[in-house]
Amino acid sequence: MKIVSNGISIEVEDSGADVSAERPVVLLIMGLGMQLVAWPPALVQGLVDAGFRVVRFDNRDIGLSQHFDALGSPNLLWEGLKYRLGWKTTPPYTLHDMARDALGVLDALQIASVHVVGVSMGGMVAQRLALLAPGRVISLSSIMSSSGARGLPAASPAVTRALLSRPADKSKQAAIDHSVKLFKAIGSVGFPMPDAELRARVTQAMERNFHPQGITRQMVAIVADGTRADALRGITAPTLVLHGRADPLVPFACGEDTARRIPGAQLVGIDGMGHDLPPGVVDHLLVHMVPHLMVASR
């Protein structure tokens, strides 16, 4: 369903509200360029079965939410160079703007408080939301994400090249093939996803919406968010940091740093987990997330 959040159009899915309006709410925030359908059904259902209402949404500029093509397409090489030189980067919009979008989703649905769960860039937005509206965030779960601090290990050169590369042509099929190749490069070595399932997930997303320009603007928003690391000490919500020890895109040290910066945060490293959500990883996440959410709900 479409709602108006922070003055823009946002696509939302609401699961579990029909069972009981009194259920505690979990807000799921997806990562770079990923739509709400990227949340595995098993994870959503696992949370619903545990007694939670689950709200998902497409971040701005992705999926069925409002796109921002009028803001232009930043030059990633130039923005990356400015970041390395310590120069100021001015993104079309910020992660703080995206956190305000998430807060607007809660307002539109008349939800007073939530457990916030974010993966990758979504974890960064979730951190920003916990800082923006501490009274609305019951707990925070930051998954395969980062504080954004300078000096943290980066993705391997091979993964960086795969992330920044573009298909040889602009057809949807070429985009699907490119995305499958990228997900294989960053996937969980301990929980490999069958090729057919991976391709089916990618194809589903591409058929729903294909908007690569939005990914570029989101990437620059990530690069430009240079003050979040120092601000994390101000997070007061009980925090769980979940991170794959085999993550080739956002190395495990990034999760360690995030947990170190957030007072009282619990860090859980998952052996064999990369930067994706295959079935085996979902099982491990739920084992840790559900107790964390239940304790914070009391």
Provide key terms for this protein:
8 strands; 15% strand; 298 residues; Rossmann fold
Provide structural commentary.
The chain is an alpha/beta fold. The protein has one domain (2-297): Rossmann fold, CATH 3.40.50. Helices cover 43% and strands 15% of the residues. The protein is built from 11 helices and 8 strands. The chain has helices at 41-49, 76-85, 95-108, 121-132, 157-164, 172-186, 195-208, 212-224, 228-231, 252-261, 279-297; strands at residues 2-5, 8-15, 25-29, 53-57, 114-119, 137-143, 239-244, 266-270. It has an 8-stranded mixed sheet with strand order 1-2-4-3-5-6-7-8, with helices on both faces. β3 (25-29), α1 and β4 (53-57) form a beta-alpha-beta unit. α2 (76-85) packs parallel to α8 (212-224) and α5 (157-164) packs antiparallel against α6. The protein starts with a strand and ends with a helix. The mean pLDDT is 94.
Number of domains: 1
Classify the helix fraction into a percent range: 40-55%
How far is the first residue's CA from the last residue's CA? 30 Å
Give a short account of the largest sheet.
Answer: 8 strands, mixed
Elements, N to C (H/E):
EEEHEHHEHEHHHHHEHEH
The backbone outline, from C-alpha atoms, is: globular
Strand adjacency order, main sheet: 1-2-4-3-5-6-7-8
- CATH top level assignment: Alpha Beta
Number of E strands: 8
Radius of gyration: 18 Å
Spans of 5+ residues with little confidence (pLDDT < 50)?
none
Q: By helix and strand content, what is the structural category? A: alpha/beta
**Oligomeric status:** single chain
Estimate the strand proportion: 15-25%
Q: CATH topology, anyone? A: Rossmann fold
Total helix count? 11
The chain-level mean pLDDT equals 94
